[in-house]
Design brief:
- Pathway: Sulfur metabolism; hydrogen sulfide biosynthesis; sulfite from sulfate: step 2/3.
- It contains eight helices and five strands.
- With 197 residues, it is an alpha/beta fold.
- The protein has a single domain, classed as P-loop containing nucleotide triphosphate hydrolases (Rossmann fold), CATH 3.40.50.300.
- α2 packs across α8.
- It is globular and about 55 Å long.
- The chain starts with 13 loop residues before the first helix and ends with a helix.
- Bound molecules: adenosine-5'-diphosphate.
Length: 197
Amino acid sequence: MSSNIVWHDQSVSHEERQKIKGHKPLVLWFTGLSGSGKSTIANAVERKLAELSVHSYLLDGDNVRHGLNKDLGFSDTDRIENIRRIGEVSNLMAEAGLVVLTAFISPFRSDRQLVRELVGAERFVEVFIDTPLEVCEQRDPKGLYKKARTGEIKHFTGIDSAYEAPQQPDIHVQTAEADIETCAERIVEALKSSFKL
Ligand code: ADP
């Protein structure tokens, strides 16, 4: 499908973009069960980044499914395509110099690995929002677990669709043991110390 397509070199280099922005680009890839706190913590992290004058953008699950990926459902094939497209968009935003935060369940290890390769390992930060299923189900902020348990929703991650937890996440956050503010602070500290943001 994509023969005869040539990648154009750009006149503005990565280094120039980084100098203009005042920081390097990163993709903070949040992964975890529904209700684990990806969206909440990513928002809290983005708030802190804004206060540090970091140029960022948050791509959130539901918002992307309303637009870019509104033609996709929740079958395995569609979930893979969902993540692939988000990976491509994140990569373009990182190319533009932003710190991109993404908040998608992204349940399959192979998909997250694909995005890591696409974005480049040096720019990709996998953030595991590690919350036990029982806690997510208790929180049930959107009432989805209830629907999954009664069978109203099929292929729900953690219930009747697999979640493959990261084996070596770049940042590991256990939300059952720390409040939202503390989780966000730990992530920003790790970005400064380990990723030289
Ligand atoms: P996800 O994006 O992973 O589906 P959400 O961020 O939408 O999850 O929902 C997580 C819910 O859990 C929110 O209602 C949030 O207020 C609540 N919550 C309670 N404690 C925490 C915590 N320590 N970290 C993150 N969220 C928490």
